[in-house]
Amino acid sequence: MTGIGMGLLTNEKILEYAKKSAEEANMTTEEARKLAEDLLEQAEEAKEKLEEKVDERIRKQLDRMGLATKEDVEGLKKEILKLQRVNKEPGHQKQASK
To answer: 38: closest CA among 16, 14, 20?
Structure first.
């Protein structure tokens, strides 16, 4: 949960937190810099994991709803264009409706 919380913070807030923590722990400048880098890296990783989870949930919900995906629509567009080209070819005969 802390990772998710860190992932939701801005870089500015993370750096403020690192500075405050470093001061309270009497860290050296190098230790404080390392802490800030680690926190920024953890926050980025948490953001990426959160985005992956949200994307996965959305895909599952769309699938349950039976909605067409962008790929589905693109495939249909290609098929329509292909059929239109075939229909315009010389010698293509339309079948008469019965």
So the answer is: 14
pTM greater than 0.70 (yes/no): no
Give the pLDDT score at 8. Answer: 61
Residues 6+ apart with CB under 8 A from 19: 32, 36
pLDDT classification of 2: cutoffs 50, 70, 90: low
Question: Count H helices, E strands: the chain?
Answer: 4, 0
Q: Is 47 exposed, middle or buried (0-12, 13-18, 19+ CB in 10 A)?
A: middle
Query: Crossing angle, helix 11-24 and helix 29-65, to 10 degrees?
Result: 140
